[in-house]
Amino acid sequence: MTKLLRQLGKRLRTLREERGLTQEAAADLAQLDSKHLQDMEYGRTNPTIASLAGLAQAYDVSLSVLLEDV
Length: 70
Fold this sequence. Notes:
This protein is an all-alpha fold and 70 residues long. It has a single domain (2-66), classed as 434 Repressor (Amino-terminal Domain). The chain contains 5 helices and no strands.
């Protein structure tokens, strides 16, 4: 599970950086706490579907794109 969470975190970070967003700006768009996003990007937490859906909307991608290569 830890490897999967790290892969997801890397994907989230890549998508955020491709959009030129800071963690704070991305978290704000996704209506998340920036610390929670940081924990997700480092694979330290198991995100909920609601958190992932918020990030997908913030990054203007589908959930399937968000989970690609994870």
